[in-house]
Every structure is written in structure tokens, then in C-alpha cells.
Amino acid sequence: TEQDLERRFQARVDAEEKIEPKDWMPAAYRKTLIRQISQHAHSEVVGMQPEGNWITRAPSLRRKAVLLAKVQDEAGHGLYLYSAAETLGTTREELVEALHRGKAKYSSIFNYPTLTWADIGAVGWLVDGAAIINQVALQRTSYGPYARAMIRICKEESFHQRQGYEIMLALAKGSAQQKAMAQDALNRFWWPSLMMFGPNDDESPNSAQSMKWKIKRKSNDQLRQEFVDQTVPQIEVLGLELPDPKLRWNEARGHYDFGAIDWEEFYRVIKGNGPCNRQRLQHHIKAERDGDWVREAMRAYEDKRRGREAA
Ligand code: ACO
User: Fold this and answer.
1) Would you indicate the residue range of the signal peptide (predicted)?
2) CA dist., res. 149 & res. 138, Å (int)
3) Ligand 1 centre from 103 Cα, in Å?
4) Quick check: CB of 35 below 6 Å from ligand 1?
5) Per-residue pLDDT reduced to its tens digit, 226-237
6) Of 44, 97, 100, 190, whose CB neighbour count within 10 A is largest?
7) Ligand 1 pocket residue status of 145, Cβ below 6 Å
8) Ligand 1 within 6 A of CB of 36
9) What is the CA(306)–ligand 1 centre distance, in A?
10) 133: closest CA among 73, 177, 196?
11) 290: CA distance to ligand 1 center in Å?
């Protein structure tokens, strides 16, 4: 019966066995995975926009080459993730259509603008830094194709994080103006980076079930705290001021305390009303339309080839 199947499924998950595409799985497990993996894939691809914004304006040929490679990597991450989602019986076209209709989300962080070159440093350092913390945990997620995609992505992501930190280091040790630019980027990206981990655990509707199914291996708050603990010493190395006056080492907890997150801002952004939501979606839709002729040409070629074979 269905109940026996579910019990057996949960026992496999509890025994740390990976679930593979052709294995039986509860419909809700499949649905949750498609939601999370597609949101993750869309994030990788939409995330190319704020960084792509600076490719032509990178301050040197070396910086341009590095940024170009990094942005291309993000497209690759999107492809691994769309492929992982497709193993669950959905198509990439369906997933992209859901994004365009505003039915599928992507990470809140990519709705903020990159105003200066220092923002490219802050995005690599903080945004990719936060992404790694989340994704290292997901290397142990229960669904095999997702876990394997994460292993590869994490390797590339750690290069991204270091290139961002290196930009920040150059600016923080540079002129007073450069240092101010780095500080401003840190101040603007700090809170949105903390929001990347999602709502607090007691406000997170999906967490309990996703933890039970081992889709998520650590909670939103656990991961956020890891990020804060890892990042504060890095801010100190840069010699920048802390972006939150409440950031303080708590000896008893063995962690840094931090101030209150503006959850109203978070919900405003994920409901489509952040600073760049419309621009990001419009750009994605336009890029899709601009590529239509390539897909049409491929189809026409394929039809012609089939016709020739049949003749
Ligand atoms: N941005 C946009 N939406 C978010 C965010 C965020 N930062 N955090 C949470 N949400 C959404 C959830 O998707 C969910 O909405 P939905 O049910 O309509 O999908 C709602 O807020 C409530 O959140 P949770 O119940 O906590 O949702 P979930 O269990 O899915 O946890 C999390 C959210 C932590 C983001 C999880 O989905 C995850 O780990 N995803 C994979 C990582 C990822 O997507 N990274 C992309 C950014 S990094 C990069 O691309 C470089």
C-alpha cells in the first residue's frame, strides 16, 4: 500500500541512502524538490545579470577575464540544476515558463543593484560565500542528482568567493576613496545576504518536512549563523567597519550575536517588489525571445534532415 511505500521510503532516507530518479518517492517529495531545485537553477541564471552588468566596465583585462569566467560558471550551474530537476519528470521549458509567469521564485539577493565595482567584490565574497554555506550542506541532500550537482558547484563556487574577497582586499587596502567604496558595498549587501538563508526557522513553512526528508540538512537559522561566524573575522582582516552595531562575539553561545533582520523588506522582495525585480524578469524574458530564432533554426534543420533520411 501507499503507506508501506512511504514507510520504506523514509527508512531509506533515515539510513542515508540516496534516492534516485527511478525510485518510488512520495508525490510531495517530488514536488518540493522540483520547487527548490528550479528556484535554485533560476537563481544561478538570474544571478548572472547583476554581475554581467560590470563585465564591460571591469577595471583591468585581468579582472574582466576573471569575471567573464565566473559569470559563465553560473550559467553552467544553472544547467546542472535544470538537468537535476528534469530527472523528476519536468522539462526546462516548463520551469522557465513558470519563472516568466511569476509562479517560480529565484533568490531575493539578485533583486538588488550592483552600483559600483566594489559591489562585484561584495557579491563574490558575501553572496557566493552565503551560497557555499547553503550548498555544502546540500551536498548531503537525499536526492542523488541534486547532491552530485552540488559537489561540482561547490568547487567552482569557492573560486568565486575568493575572487570576490580579493577584489575587496585590493579596494580596502587602496586609496581612501576605494576603501569607502568597499565599505559602502559591504553595508548594502550585508543584510540582503543574511536574508538569502530564508525566514527564521519558526516562520519557515517548508523546513520541518524538508528536514525530515533530508532534502535540507541544516536549518535556515543554523546556516545563517555559520555565515555570520565565518564572515566577521574576514571583515576584520579587511579592516572595514562592521555593518551591524549589534554584531558581537557571545562567549556563552560560542557564536556572534547580530541585530534584527528586516523581514518586511524580505517579503516585499520575494513578492516581486524589490529594487530590480521587474528589470531582472524583463531581461530574462527578452533574452529568451531573442534566442527564439536559434531554436527555430534547429527545429527546421532537424525536420530537413529527417525528410532527407525518409526519402
Ligand atoms: N529568496 C527567495 N525566496 C526565498 C528565500 C530567498 N532568499 N528564502 C526563502 N524563500 C521562499 C521559499 O522558496 C518559500 O517560498 P515557496 O514555498 O513559494 O517556494 C518561502 O520563502 C518560505 O521559505 P522556507 O519555508 O524556508 O523555504 P525552503 O525550505 O525552500 O528554504 C532555501 C529556502 C533555504 C532558500 C532553500 O530553498 C534552499 O536551500 N535552496 C537552495 C539554495 C538556493 O536556492 N540558492 C540560490 C541562491 S545562491 C546562488 O545562486 C549563487
Assistant:
1) none
2) 9
3) 14
4) yes
5) 999 999 999 999
6) 44
7) no
8) yes
9) 44
10) 196
11) 29
Residues 300 and 298: their CA atoms lie apart, in Å, by 5
- Looking at ligand 1, which atom is closest to the CA of residue 106? 2
- Tell me: the pLDDT tens digits for 166-225? 999 999 999 999 999 999 999 999 999 999 999 999 999 999 999 999 999 999 999 999
**CA–CA distance, 243 with 261 (Å, rounded to integer):** 12
38 lines ligand 1 (CB under 6 A): no
Residue type at 112?
Y
CA 289 to chain centre: 24
How many residues are present in the chain?
311
Q: Whose CA is nearest to atom 45 of ligand 1?
A: 40
Residue type, 135: Q
Question: Helix, strand or coil for residue 196?
Answer: coil
DSSP designation for 274:
S
C-alpha cell at 258: 547580530
CB distance 244 to 260 below 8 Å = no
206 lines ligand 1 (CB under 6 A): yes
- Regarding an ipTM greater than 0.85, the answer is yes
How much is the pTM? 0.96
- Nearest CA, atom 38, ligand 1: 36
